[in-house]
Amino acid sequence: MSQQLQAKLEQFLDLNKKIKSYNEAIGLLHWDMSTGAPRKGIDTRSETIGMLSSEAFKLQTSEEMKDLISFLKQENEFAALSDVHQRLINDCKKELDRTQSVPAEKVREFSVLTAQAQAKWEVAKEKADFASFEPYLSRIVAMQSEFIDYYGVKDTRYDTLLDMYEPDLTVEKLDEVFSRLKARIVPLQEAISQSVHKPDTSFLKQSFDIKQQSEFSKYILKEMGYDFEAGRLDESVHPFAMGLNPGDVRITTHYYDTDVASAIFSSLHEGGHALYEQNIDSNLAGTLLAEGTSMGIHESQSRLWENMIGRSRAFWEHYYPILRSYFPNQLENISLDQFYEAINKVESSLIRIEADELTYNLHIIIRYEIEKMLFNEQLDVKDLPQVWNEKYKQYLGVTPPDDGAGLLQDVHWSGGDFGYFASYSLGNMYAAQIMNTLAKELPEYENYIKEGKLAPLKEWLTDKVYQYGKSRKPSELIVAITGEELNPDYLANYLENKYKEIYKL
Amino acid sequence: MSQQLQAKLEQFLDLNKKIKSYNEAIGLLHWDMSTGAPRKGIDTRSETIGMLSSEAFKLQTSEEMKDLISFLKQENEFAALSDVHQRLINDCKKELDRTQSVPAEKVREFSVLTAQAQAKWEVAKEKADFASFEPYLSRIVAMQSEFIDYYGVKDTRYDTLLDMYEPDLTVEKLDEVFSRLKARIVPLQEAISQSVHKPDTSFLKQSFDIKQQSEFSKYILKEMGYDFEAGRLDESVHPFAMGLNPGDVRITTHYYDTDVASAIFSSLHEGGHALYEQNIDSNLAGTLLAEGTSMGIHESQSRLWENMIGRSRAFWEHYYPILRSYFPNQLENISLDQFYEAINKVESSLIRIEADELTYNLHIIIRYEIEKMLFNEQLDVKDLPQVWNEKYKQYLGVTPPDDGAGLLQDVHWSGGDFGYFASYSLGNMYAAQIMNTLAKELPEYENYIKEGKLAPLKEWLTDKVYQYGKSRKPSELIVAITGEELNPDYLANYLENKYKEIYKL
To answer: In which band, very low, low, confident or very high, does the pLDDT at A1 lie, cut at 50, 70 and 90?
Structure first.
């Protein structure tokens, strides 16, 4: 490598590090707001976050960044770089191109619009008043559509949006994947709803001491290999995981004193996200590759731990007696089977975030189909409630009493986040596909889980997924691990096997 | 005001706000490191703090800042500005002049030196090995002396250092003040040490549940008017107060399970600092004037609440029965008088931070005299141990067994902070002088305290001290409140009255 190239590369890496430093500060300011910052400091705090975000954005789109990238992308120079550095440069270039393609005043206009829309959405949801939100949502869809033209239309207009969250994922692929998944889980869900077997979940809703819940969450996180010397567990209204730096990956949960399951499964979920970020190869530290490679792969790791491990019978064979020792009075008459069935109860419902792991995918497919109609088929925003309600009736057999429990339930669209929802189901499908390979390569894995030995699973996942961070694309990663591209059959197989047994179908 | 002036002023205020935003982020990153950030994230975290600090410094010394200040300082323009804006500009100019006067490479050299020296100091203190620290301290004194030349020598060389912490304070003034104080408290301390009356403090050292201690600290903070919606109480190794923004002024304390007094008085102390910052006039928000006006005035507010209110008999007449209800087993046989005397026990000792409110001032006077010798009388650093030990013998009648319990006990000098120590005693003297005026203007104040009505005191202090933030100099403030400049007699009077009664002299 020439001396000039070396110098330019170092300058580029320093710039990366500086952006990461801004992101760490911004992350901590957000974390703090969610975990106990005093109410009266919030306004000034928000301005501080705004200032730092704008500084980070300036660096990402600075002349220095542009010059460095165009130097490093020269054929001879680029060829002399390592694979990781090439990917980092490509990533920054992709981001830069996207940002530069939209006029700055449009970006500002969109950020003002979405800020207003989120405030309007909150009230509209509360009052179940779609009419008051509709003009904002129409404007957001129109602007997002303009942005698609600026970014460049991929196979279809909606493809451009999907690619922002899951690089290289296409409508063609998702249509096929979701239709195969739908074909198997809709009948499964119908069979379950007709089954006379109805697990009793009432005992999950007794009074459970929050201090004990918190101790159990910490215990379970330690068991799965979450490193408390490189993270911490706090409480917030909505649970989240946040990687501030490789040695500081925090998670939050939320405790309900009348619900023992919620905090356990949100700890497992966020713990899965955190294991990913805690175990990224240290060579990537300080670069923008030291994060999850896509929303879908990130979600696969949270759902793998929450559902495929955390809601398995093997897991509770070991951990249920321990949970019972935390809550002897509440659980003394509840058997392992009763507990296992209760935490796996399937029920069609109206609200995505409360859905079980089977019907959850139907909530996502509905949103995917609607978003595709909005951007590829000119569905009018004002017709959304009708389409929404029809699809809920068709796929889940339920109809929202009003739009508050219908299409106003999610925050995403008010922020312009179209193309994001698919990630949640991608996570489920990736997770099942990865677990299928894990089962082959680690044939003893169920026995490990039954013995409370989770370390071999974490190590396998580190080896296959975690260590690479963003240095491999999701499509490359899934092929490298499982030998084939995204395949929904693994999720369908997993769900059928599990629920036919539980519901005696 | 001309349109141009208006525009320049706004630009200047925006720059101020941006610097404040950086400071808020840096503050939170520090707060987080002291209150529970995971160990493995510390290295990256420190780099992040370094990056943000350097960005804030760049703004403070930017060409933009220089141009704005020189525009705004033009005679005609300056005259058209409000008093607050004039002071803000003067403050920024003073800081800028100081920074610009020292060559950048000297600043870097000094910051490397002090970073190394602090690491050396820690080990040297631990091992009571002055010889290993001496070369670093000599170099720090030499460089600080060079800086004095760059900054400009005031009346004496040491005056230049004092002015950095307490604007306009002089050696001439402090010599007079400390000699008058010494003349009265040295005999008082001697009389006490010869008194046969020795308060029993052993009951303060029983086992005290930390959860209960924390509840009591929160209760006391609420009583003094600390606003928990604009702050929070956490635990750290060394207690501190930190104003992140006007609506977010945090404090920490430290709980010992074998000591009930430590956390109470550190909560009162940090609570006093916090009341100051929570009650600065909102017109100053977002400017560099929204902080305490000097170290000495800040310390006066912590000590006024910790000692003059918090260690008064009136205070515990109301609060001791309440404290006893938190710890019925430990305190049931302890009377109010016993408790009052125990928390006011005077004893000559070797360690400043463990000293009582009387002898504390002697620890400070010793440090003041030694610093003055270092900078004004060419005292050689290698002679420090001998001078230190002689002065401890002379003023406090004790001799350190080694330098670890002697001149190595404090961190300040390893960081180059000469001129800072005086602030602690200034705080005591300002506090007594302010309390003397409060007693005249609020003659019922002792009855208020006895009834647990602390709000009128907080309101009076807000009116006289807090609201002004840094918009009045300490010397102006003390004259405006009390009608005279700093006068040590009020502290001497207060200490004599209080301790003659306790020690039956």
So the answer is: confident
